[in-house]
Design brief:
It is a single chain. The protein has 100 residues and is mainly beta. 0% of the residues lie in helices and 52% in strands. It contains no helices and nine strands. A five-stranded mixed β-sheet has the order 2-9-8-4-5, with no helix packed on it. Strand 8 and strand 9 form a beta hairpin. It is globular. The chain starts with a strand and ends with a strand. The mean pLDDT is 96.
Length: 100
Amino acid sequence: RDAETKLLGGPDMIVEAGSTINLTCTVKHVPKPPDKISWLHDKEEVSYQGPRPGVSLITDKGEVTSTSIILAGARFEDSGEYSCVPDNAPKATIQLHVIQ
């Protein structure tokens, strides 16, 4: 079977401003868990060391690897395309819409 990456809740997700954004991505059918999974927001890498405060990343590696990015205090500028990019499987994307 081909490697498969899925972003749960896609292709569109709507969250209210001020709430917590939780995006979860699963990677399966790979020979081994990915060494690195990047999260991109409109093609820019998002990390807990980046300019946006309140970012957490949680990864659980196994037969199915799951990775979550959690953004506290959703803001309008958090809207856009998010991609989960494993180093050994295709990427998955979701459109996030932050509303009032």
